[in-house]
């Protein structure tokens, strides 16, 4: 069961309107309800504005939350070979702001390849999809994945491509995701 928390935006804050994917400014004093806080982003409903908005972790203080900080990979030698599991762990912190399951468990990541880039570092290429082709949040989710991958020591760049072939279906979800969403 998820709990909701009523908050008031305490400073002007950049947010992304869901599902349109449009960047807007939520003004200080706007009442909101946190409906999801996963990864390091928040989904809030702003009743006076009539919609849902995604607030990035860097702006968590605008809703009275501590800024998120990830220690994944903090003790990793940047000159060591890239551990693919570190990349998957970062992707497990990427969420569709309307679904309380990460993109890995949803089955949205179709392919992940690491290209050794020599002394400069490695490049990661990811092919992923969305639960709906017309989702306005696709660029936001892909950018979140890219940023998280590039936070892994030894990664110098990530290319995250959104594809729609094959089309996503619920059969691609993990058992844990299906259980979380009440599909089992």
Structural class: alpha+beta
Helix percentage: 10-25%
- Largest sheet properties: 6 strands, antiparallel
CATH class of the largest domain: Alpha Beta
Give the overall silhouette. globular
> Mind telling me the C-alpha Rg?
17 Å
Total individual domains: 2
Task: Provide the CATH topology of the largest domain.
Answer: GMP Synthetase, Chain A, domain 3
Strand content: 25-35%
Number of helices in the DSSP assignment = 3
Please outline what is shown here.
The protein contains three helices and nine strands, in the order E-E-E-E-E-E-H-E-E-H-E-H.
List the helices and strands and how they pair.
Blueprint: E1 5-8, E2 13-18, E3 22-26, E4 31-38, E5 41-46, E6 51-55, H1 84-91, E7 109-115, E8 122-128, H2 138-150, E9 155-162, H3 175-180
